[in-house]
Amino acid sequence: MGANQHFVPKGYLKGFTIPYQYSDKFIWVYKKKSGINPEKRSIKKVSSQENYYAQEDEHGNVEPDKLENAISQVENLALPIIQRINTCENIVILNGDEFGHLAYFIGLSLARVPSFRNPISEMLKKVVETTANNMLNRGEFSEPPPKLKEYFEAGGRLKAEIKPWASLEPMLQISDVLAQSIIKKKWTFFTPYKGQTFITSDNPVIFYQDNRFRGVPMGPAHPMATILYPMRRDLALMCSLDEREHEGIEAGALENEKHINIKCSSKNETLFFKERVILAARENVYADYFSHPLKKLVWSREGTEQTILTE
């Protein structure tokens, strides 16, 4: 039996667990499927898959923990920063290293989930199949066995099987690109409307288009894409277009302290954040409370999922 590896880290999920009675071990899980009621589950058992980060070395030997150990180091740098932010203050001060650690952690959190890795695998499969079949049509393969030759001459095509680990290297490359984009955005922290809390999901980093840019094709690394990231039940981060001149921002982005505002979100803003989380979620929405209205809202978004287009 392989290792149970999380694509949404337990240390992050602790920020959304049921307070007081259940310590920091349990969370309410809302399924994006009508008729399935929410249930309390241990954070050890959500947003995880067996051997999710396993890969093969050049000799074909499986390395189940190498990448997970490296990812754990990223988490160990970023999660304490998230945990220590004081929402009673009006300003969050981050030094350059802290700012960089958070940006990379957010980029990795966006790219490491199945909603991103699965389309990457599908894209790789299409590329391999298209390339192989084009080579076959041009006669660039050596003579195939008779039965296989007959299959090809009858119009058959090669089918590729992509191993799960094939998407790991693109995942890390995309994480770095996303981090560089996030660094250049304007950051604002939000606390929820009084008496409410933020929620998260198995697809926790949300990207979307501001109404000003409707109709402009953009992915999460686009300068005009807005990134929304619930950090804890009492804290969310929005990274949006920095409308200042961009000259010098990239070069000096990590050199000085960052003074980032904390704003109290309105009732409508808090609801907007929740709706965005639910729309982006793949299968599960996580909260620190049970609510019939939240359950119905999650059910109403069945079939939605934030993912990437690879065509």
Walk me through this protein's architecture:
By secondary structure, the protein is of the alpha+beta class. It has one domain. 37% of the residues lie in helices and 20% in strands. The strands form four sheets. The chain has a six-stranded mixed beta sheet. A four-stranded antiparallel beta sheet has the order 3-2-14-9. Strands 1-4 form a two-stranded antiparallel sheet. A hairpin with a 2-residue loop joins strand 11 and strand 12 (235-240).
Could you give a quick summary of the protein structure above?
The chain is α+β, with helices and mostly antiparallel strands.
Low-confidence stretches: 245-249
Could you give the distance between the termini?
36 Å
Strand content: 15-25%
Give the averaged pLDDT, no decimals: 87
How many alpha or pi helices? Answer: 9
- Number of beta-strand segments: 14
**Domain module tally:** 1
Shape: globular
Helical percentage: 25-40%
The largest β sheet comes out as:
6 strands, mixed
Strand order of the main beta sheet, please? 7-13-8-12-11-10
What's the gyration radius in Å?
A: 22 Å
Order of helices and strands: EHEEEEEHEHHHHEEEEEHEHEH
Structural class by sheet pairing and helices: alpha+beta
For this entry, give a set of tags.
alpha+beta; 6-stranded mixed sheet; 4-stranded antiparallel sheet; 9 helices
Draw up the topology in text.
Elements: E1 4-6, H1 10-13, E2 26-31, E3 39-42, E4 48-50, E5 55-56, E6 62-63, H2 66-84, E7 91-94, H3 96-111, H4 114-137, H5 146-153, H6 168-183, E8 186-191, E9 200-201, E10 206-209, E11 225-232, E12 235-240, H7 249-252, E13 258-264, H8 267-280, E14 284-287, H9 292-300
Parallel strand pairs: 8-13
Antiparallel strand pairs: 1-4, 2-3, 2-14, 5-6, 7-13, 8-12, 9-14, 10-11, 11-12
Helix pairs in contact: 2-3, 3-6
